[in-house]
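Crash report, auto-generated. Payload:
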Amino acid sequence: MTENIIKVCPNCGKRLQKRPTYSFHYWGTISFVAIISLMLLALDIIPESGSKIDWNLDWAHWTVLGIWIFYLSVQLLRYNVDYGWILIPFAGVLFSIFFYFLDISDGNNSGFLGLDWGWYLIIPWITFVVILPIFARIARNQPEHIEILRDFVDQLEDEFNNGN
Amino acid sequence: MEIERREEENTEKISLEKREGFFEYVKRTVVRELRFVNDTFYSAFKDLFMLFAWMFNVKVTDNYIRKEAETFEIEPKSSNGYAIIGCHGFLSTPQIFEEIGPLLAENGYYFRAIRLSGHGTSVSHLATKAGEDWFSSVVWHYKDISKKYDKIIYIGHSLGGTLGMLLGTIYPLEKIIALASPIQLPIKSAKYARFVSAFIKYWPRSKAKIKANRSKGLATYEKSPLYATYGVFEVGQILIERAEKLRNDILYFHAELDHFSYKDQPELMRKYFENINLEIVYCEDTPHSMLVYGPKKMEIYNRILNWIDD
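Recovered output after restart:
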């Protein structure tokens, strides 16, 4: 599985490599992204002229949504590096939906399913970020844990029988 | 006199050539101010930069063994030639044998409580483990003990008991005692646990269980890594495949207050191990962790001792 393991002595179990000195509460990064999102929303609603706040969002909601999808993907990956083969495609699907709505919400929507430029981004994106990583993972010939255990038990039995 | 002394103190002792020049003074002041600004900004934004970096920092797995969770062994004062391996269950530690271990050693048995791979370290470490890792821990200790002792008895709680029965299909064991060990749990969705663990890595345990374990000072985990959970099912499956090869006497304890999925385990034991001497003990008012909790803990200890002595 993961190779990001703190080195310890195999005999005594003592830690050879110190832990990172810095750590943060789980809400630290969430608040960080939330504050930046609020800032973007505030920049959008503040009018260029006049004293009344314009509550209609022009662009900030797309930026905020993109940031949060990116944040979610990074957090999932951060805790499960070995699951990149499914987590990156998962993030890819979210971003594809994001691009779809980004395109359909603005501009000339006369193309296939109401999109204009979206397909030229979404199709390569789905191919390279969603389909190919999953395909490559499924194509990999890796034994399952139960097969490893079964082989291990059989091997021990053979060793024991031959030894006697 | 006073005036003279004051006049003397006021007299400049440094010659004009050695005094700090104007540009040196400016340089010193600017450097001091810049350092002040630098330190202030560093203090204000250091944590912010660290937090930003933390967001992308890969979670590190800690495999440092907690002191209280280490493997321990007890040598008897006068040995009767038997050794006993004690193996804990999933999420647990060798601490569960701290009470029964000395009792067994008093009766002349060499006792070793072993630690399964991934246990007693960190829950993220256990999340990288599976059945083959736990079984290799058991085999390693068995081989180590068999250098000194020919007659080995095995006591295993939960997963430890299942691993012990699997061990018994390969190596000679005198007797096996399995406490609330799962053979085949009827949870069909468990096979998806490894896939789901990509999105939900841990499943929390009940607050009552966490509180009880804390009060006992047990270094058990407070959440269950979904990736490793399916390993318990795999060990049971391999055991069932090899059930015919098991020839040992087995004493099986069933806890009445166990999880609903354990209700059928005694019947499954009878079904898969027809040809062996199997004795099943039903323990009333007893939870899954029967060596640590429950009103009938001492009765279980005595039953184990009597059965081993017979």
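Post-recovery validation: DSSP finds five helices and no strands in chain A.
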